[in-house]
Every structure is written in structure tokens, then in C-alpha cells.
Fold this sequence. Notes:
This protein has about 120 residues and is mostly helical. It has a domain at about 35-120. It is about 50% helix and about 0% strand. It has helices at about 40-45, 50-60, 70-85, 90-100, 100-120. Helix 2 packs parallel to helix 5. The longest helix is centred in the last third of the chain and has 17 residues, at about 100-120. The protein is globular, with a radius of gyration of 18 Å. The model has no long low-confidence stretch (mean pLDDT about 80).
Amino acid sequence: MDQQPQYPVQGAPAAYPFKPNTPPKQWKAGLFDCFNDVGNLIYVLCFGPCAFASRASRLRKGDGWLCFCCYGGALPIRGEIRMRANIEGTACDDCLTIWFCPCCAAVQEQQEINELERAGLL
């Protein structure tokens, strides 16, 4: 039996709109800029689980059931936003931000998702 040579499978192109050699950026809004977006801040403070489910849905990472496990689901959502927008940071940074400033982090994420949608990247 004649066997065909096996070649390694090449990786698929990246699904994110940045080049791997592009230097990472900063968040469009600072962590404490949440006070500049009062409407979004009130939404996050009064309807936190719904705001979380909205972010997950806008990233196409769930349909809203995650609203019942905010802290457990918040870390991958924030990481996904960072990856899609090519934002500098680590999972440890995300964890500390979510733990100590959950409302400010949520508003910052909402603002970043808004920017990604405006740019047509979501």
C-alpha cells in the first residue's frame, strides 16, 4: 500500500481584525472614566446581571444565562474584549480589575464593545 506523505495542518487565519505584529493598545476609556458615562453606569449599577448578559450576547458568547454567574463569566468576557480590540493586559489584570472595581470594569467593557461595533469589528 502506497501511503501519501503527511503534512502538518496549517493554522487558520486569525479571526481578529489586527495583525499579530501590531503593538497592543490601551482601553479607549480609563477604568474610572465610568463617571463620564452616567447612563451606562446607572444601567450597570441597577441591572448588573442584565448588563453582563448584554455584553456576552454582543460578543456572541452566550444568550444571557451567564447573568447568574457574573464573576465566573466576567473574566473570559473581559479577555475576549481585550483580544478582539488588541488591548494590552493579562488575565491577572482582568481578574483584579473585576474583583476590586466590577462596576467600573463593566462600564469600561461596554464602552469598548460600543467602539468595536462602531468600527464594524463585531
